[in-house]
Amino acid sequence: MIATLFNAKHDRLPKILEHASGDKRFKILEAHMKKHQFRQDALIEVLHKAQELFGYLEDDLLLFIACKLKLPASRVYGVATFYHFFTLKPNGRHTCVVCLGTACYVKGAAKILAAVEERTKVKAGETTPDNELSLLTARCIGACGIAPAVVYDGTVTPRQTPETALDHLKGWIGHGD
Amino acid sequence: MDRLRVSTVWLGGCAGCHMSFLDLDEVLIELAARIELVYSPLIDVKEYPENVDLCLVEGAVCNEDNLDMIHKIRARTKVLVSFGDCAVTANVPAIRNQLGLKNGESVLQRAYVEGAQAMGGLPQEPGIVPALLDRVMPVHEVVYVDYFVPGCPPPADHIQAVMNQVLSGAEPRLQGAQLKFG
Amino acid sequence: MAAKTLTIDGKQISADECATILEAAADAGITIPTLCHLEGVYDVGACRLCLVEVTGISKLLPACTTKVAEGMEIRTDTERLIRYRRMTLELLLAERNHVCAVCVANGHCELQTLAFNQGVDHVRYEYCFPKWEVDNSHALFGMDHNRCLLCTRCVRVCWHIEGAGTKNVSGRGAKARIISDLNQPWGTSDTCTKCGKCVMACPTGALFYKGSTNSEMERDRDKLEFIVTAREKKQWIA
Amino acid sequence: MVIDDLTEIADKERAARKRYTIRCCMAAGCMSSNSKGVKEALEDAVNQAGLQQMVEVRGVGCMKLCCQGPLVQIDSATAGATFALESNEVGPLYQKVTPEDANSLVSTLKGGQTPVQRGDPRHPFFSAQLSIVLANSGFIDPERIESYITAEGYQALHDVLRELTPKDLIERIIKSGLRGRGGAGYPTGLKWATVGKAASQQKYVICNADEGDPGAFMDRSVLESDPHSVLEGMAIAAYAVGANQGFIYVRAEYPLAIARLHAAIKQAKKYGLLGSGIFESPFNFNIDLRIGAGAFVCGEETALMASVEGKRGTPRPRPPFPAESGLYNSPTLINNVETFANVAPIVRKGAEWFAGIGTEKSKGTKVFALAGKITNTGLIEVPMGTALRKIVEEMGGGAPDGGKIKAVQTGGPSGGCIPAEELDTPVDYDSLTKLGSIMGSGGMIVMDETTKMVDVARFFMEFCMDESCGKCVPCRAGTAQMHQLLNKILAGNATTRDLQKLEELCYMVKNTSLCGLGQTAPNPVLSTLRFFRKEYTDLLMPDAFGPRPNAVNGTGHAAAGRNLAPTEGVPSSGK
User: Would the CB atoms of B179 and C123 count as touching at under 8 Å?
Assistant: First the structure.
């Protein structure tokens, strides 16, 4: 019985590599790693690229990177979850990032967030059930001169209020009701 | 000589600490000469009296009844001792806190309905069955506690050490392994 | 190798120049409390229990990572240090769910022992009561995150003694946790050699041999030192 | 590349200069208000008016008054001047410009009128500034190295390589009195000297551009507006300490800065200003970018180095300091963006000139990001020692809508709140430290009477709790407990005992945490407790069964420090 316990194999990797061979994005990622000579210290650069290509870092992708950089999977996972910028689950079709930096905060960013949370019925860090919108927060995007700022699909928008924010999100939410 | 007016109280706990107190065996007889047990699950007094010198509290603060009781005790007692891990750390009763706040309903459901072997049903008797608190708390989160005797339960010799210290007028100062949780 | 002379708690001692304050103190028979330190693996200075005062330096220094220097005057027992140690232990006890009464390591736990040695008779901070799971998927061992201190001893033995790199830390802050491979059930790990070094290294009941129940979890920590000495010095001191 | 090539490039740029320059802010603040559209519209308008020969539309870096963006300014050239740096050339400043305004703005060049709102370039917000770091910002085109070269760029690097030994160079930096602009204010020259002395074949220079303090955007502006000044500063530093490889660690939240740095490094390499044998000397130096991934703790130097090595950004105990054993265990010099940007001007204009600016112990200027409840938000650079009142009231124009300033927060989550009564404090390292705050990297958030200080303290504590890496216990568990206590106070459920507990924890976390994040996390609480204690005590509820007077904090027996015997009614055995 002990022998069977010890010989159990969980070979996920071959399947991932086989799947990867048919996906162009994995090829681009591998080329990027090659540019860094598959150096282990390029892990964060590689994760950036992977997220750019795939939108998020799913387990198989992390395992692929671990394999190519010859790093333990636990290390890759540890790094990917340490940094806020990396996300391990897919975002919605649109993103709304409310900056909660100090300047935005003293100018009412919390109220904007509360209003958006109430309207979308999701909390910060979550995605609406219809996958349309991910509501996120940032620790300061350095746009303090135009506070409070909200980033809609990557576009920094200055001097927001709960009203302007909800107005902006109109097209993205509420298909359900 | 006036005897020390001592009480012991049983809040949310398993009564193990009181059992351990009873394990003092013959020492209890010596104690009886020095202390007057004015309130305790071991004696038949219904109302917590005024002017208690020392109170040993067993158990965590789990329900409305415990909460009212501990405030009353604190108001009427000079020196309050958290007696055993449930009083000191909230211990096992507080494991339900991990399920999130306001879980009273689901805890009862699990215990009295899902876990019931026959005739399951939530205990509901307003005025008799006290409502569970949102969060189980150690005694010192609710009122000021003077001294702590950890242990699950505190072994009889620890209790004896504490009582000796108290009776000799010293502060109850347990040390080293006598302070062991668990 | 050159020796350095220094004083610890007023006691004059000499120590090897490569020695840490912790090693020098141990040689002189002075015990400094530690938690994340483990003989055989490198130190990280994370638990902050071994902080000491050094005359002329305003910051408190961890004894485990600070090397001795000539003429150092070190204090390990000031009122402030004792108070901070106690607070650190209280913070640890409040952080996760350390229910000693029902813990496999009750009576054999370094956190528990440190707590009573430092006079922690209760925890003044509100217990956090986080929800953590127990990973029982492994054939031989279990991992109870409720008892974990994030001392990373298991991570370090897995990396540096066993060399498998199965264990690491994911996330950060209070949400940090010990993971196996890609945060998967330990039992499904491809890299775990089932050597059990992590279990030997654990100071609390977080890692345990399966089947051990309340208070049964004793471990043989000397084995780790034995392996490291054998590997590095070619000396087999059983 | 030799010096003549630099001169040639500059001459060519000058010769190509047109009668008018329309400068259009292309830094991130104005870009978010569509300054790109404005610039394109202006180019179209110039073309339509047939003025291509007379007018250049130039995208420039930050023009400082961010709240009024997009900003556009029109200069008319005087003969012989290199740039519109001289104030007499600086023309009218237009605010909140939209693409629709382009035609009327261009028409002013031919005597036309424009309804666009005009700013006052002589307002103290501009006139009280003294620019060293931001001298080029808003004037040169940050995307063209030629523009930087024309503003005497890379001259200092050339002179250093030709005329100074590393030792003399370090001497000059020490003499200038420059201190690190990242927060702690360690003398830059001394740091260089330590790294210089370290015996190692391999050394590194790292530029810390992980500007993580919420409310700070100075470094971002410098990188977006004048990236080459940072590259040149790094190259000079590398020569001083004997490094041949540099890294810029920049946060991923700054995509524009990253793009401009990428471009700048590429251009500098193309011109041979980075790479091997720079200015035909034996000096080699390369710079690589490392993009952060959203971790405040990576602003701490040991954590930053771990991150550059591709690891989890957790700090490690010091000593050993990076100057002895840093990146890949080699001696490493880490300075912040603004520190590097000061280097070339010091080399060009001399240590004495720099040391003549500022106060006795804080030399030079400091860039601040002015934000919060203040009329003029934006970027300012002032001499060290300028009174806080001058900055927030004269330059910043005070609180908007007639509000009253209550406090100024400096130093981000590591700093503190300076109350309005202390506004006459000169801004320098030591004065701010005395007030329980720090200079920090330069974020300055103004708060008015509507701001609740306990809430501000909780805001920062939450920030630190979320950003704690989780390695050491006091920071990981301590910030969580302090946050919990602040919540309890704000909810009105706390007693004086809780406040005591909070204060005690503050000092404990400050003194026992592993790195700067934890060591400074309690500062916002401590400083608001110091100046706004009443706001805390007003929230407390009465403590009916609180500790008796001589029981310090209820910790166990020793701290309770009292004997049962003296307590009335508990007889001792002798009675």
Answer: no
Neighbours of chain A (3+ CB pairs under 8 A): C, D
Is A18 within the bounds of a domain? yes
Q: Is residue A174 part of a domain?
A: no
Based on the fold, state whether residues C103 and C215 are members of the same structural domain.
Answer: yes
Look at chain C and report how many structural domains it folds into.
2
ipTM associated with this complex: 0.93
- Does some domain include residue A87? no
Q: Which domains does chain D have, with CATH numbers?
A: 3-127 (3.40.30.10), 153-355 (3.40.50.11540), 365-443 (3.10.20.600), 454-537 (1.20.1440.230)
The CATH number covering residue A129 comes to 3.40.30.10
Chain A hits for C180, CB-CB cut-off 8 Å, are 74
Q: Give me Rg for the CA atoms of chain D.
A: 27
With an 8 Å Cβ cutoff, is D191 touching chain A?
A: no
Same domain flag for A17 and A73? yes
Q: Which of C177, C190, C191, C194 to mutate to test the interface with A (most CBs of A within 10 A)?
A: C190
| A36 lies in the same domain as A67 | yes
Are residue C114 and residue C223 in the same domain, yes or no?
yes
Q: If we measure between CA atoms, which residue out of A108, A89, A90, A92 comes closest to residue A100?
A: A108
For residue A57, the chain D residues in CB contact (below 8 A) are: none
- Whether there are 3 or more C-beta pairs closer than 8 Å between D and A is yes
Which residue in C128, C132, C21, C146 sits closest to C73, CA to CA?
C21
Based on the domain organization, do C130 and C189 belong to the same domain?
Answer: yes
In a domain, C128, yes or no: yes
Interchain pair C122, B138: CB under 8 A = yes
pLDDT digit string (tens) for chain D, length 575 residues: 788 999 999 999 888 888 889 999 999 889 988 999 999 999 999 999 999 999 999 999 999 999 998 999 998 875 444 454 444 567 889 999 999 999 999 999 888 889 999 998 889 999 999 999 999 999 999 999 999 999 999 999 999 999 999 999 999 999 999 999 987 889 999 999 999 999 999 999 999 999 888 888 899 999 999 999 999 999 999 999 999 999 999 999 899 999 999 999 999 999 999 999 999 999 999 999 999 999 999 999 999 999 999 999 999 999 899 999 999 999 999 999 999 999 999 999 999 999 999 999 999 999 999 999 999 999 999 999 999 999 999 999 999 988 899 999 999 899 999 999 999 999 999 999 999 888 888 889 999 999 999 999 999 999 999 999 999 999 999 999 999 999 999 999 999 999 999 999 999 999 999 999 999 999 999 999 999 999 999 999 987 655 443 333 333 333 233 333 323 333 333 32
DSSP state of D395: I
SS3 state at A80: helix
> Which domain, by its residues, includes A16?
11-82
- CB-based contact, C65 to chain D, within 8 Å: yes
The residue segments making up the domain with residue C140 are 93-233
Give me Rg for the CA atoms of chain B. 17
What CATH number does residue C54 fall under? 3.10.20.740
Q: What residues are paired with D245 via a beta bridge?
A: D204, D286
Q: What is the DSSP letter of A35?
A: H
State whether C219 and C104 are in the same domain: yes
Q: Is residue C86 a part of any domain in this protein?
A: no
Residue B101: closest CA among chain C residues belongs to which residue?
C129
DSSP string over D236-300: HHHHHHT--EEEEEE-TT-HHHHHHHHHHHHHHHHTTSSBSSGGGSS--BEEEEEE--S-GGGGS
Q: Do C121 and B88 touch (CB under 8 A)?
A: yes
Question: How many Å lie between the alpha carbon of B143 and the closest alpha carbon of chain C?
Answer: 12
CB contact under 8 A, A72 and C182: no
Which among D563, D569, D573 has the least Cβ separation from residue B167?
Answer: D573
Instruction: Confirm if D398 and D389 have CB atoms less than 8 A apart.
Output: no
Interface residue A62 vs chain C (CB under 8 A): yes
Query: H helices then E strands: how many in chain D?
Result: 23, 14
For residues A55 and A103, membership in a common domain is answered with no
pTM: 0.92
Question: How many structural domains comprise chain A?
Answer: 2
Instruction: Provide the 10 A C-beta neighbour count for residue C216.
Output: 14
For residue A145, give the nearest of D67, D294, D314 by CB distance. Answer: D67
CATH code of the domain occupying B4-95+134-176: 3.40.50.700
Q: Which residues on chain D are in Cβ contact (under 8 Å) with B172?
A: 557, 564
